[in-house]
Amino acid sequence: MKDNKTIYLGSDHAGFDLKEKIKDLLDESGYKYIDSGNLKLEPGDDYPDYAYKVAKNVAQTNSRGILICDSGVGVCIVANKINGIRAVVGYNTRIAKMSRLHNDTNILCLGQDYISPDRARKIVQTWLETDFSDEKRHQRRLDKINKIEHKEIDF
Known about the structure:
Order of helices and strands: EHEHEHEHEHH
Structural class: alpha/beta
Helix content: 40-55%
Number of helices: 6
Radius of gyration: 15 Å
Distance between the termini: 32 Å
């Protein structure tokens, strides 16, 4: 069973400040989270390290995660390399909502250099509060993605 109350977090130095602010939001909203690092600001760290940790944990536990770097793009690329991950760069609330409704995204990626903390807060809230639609057409598409991940389909 999916535990939507546990969120895995991760960021490199370029997303560290925003990650700390998101932790405050999660605390206020009653979500449990696991901070997968970096646990302190280290200017020389690399986003793939944290994106991989979060994505592996999300895939293994069928939970959700939030990743932050300067643009959100790097962590999104890494996360989407892991089977079972459907990560999105959430640059506004509409994308956050639609990514959940239609694609059942399980990792939200944010770019600290491109969104304000207030906007990030709204994006995170929207993403966390939106459920997958369960419409047949959307489930059919997710099933195809799963087959592609497991090399069971060739178009």
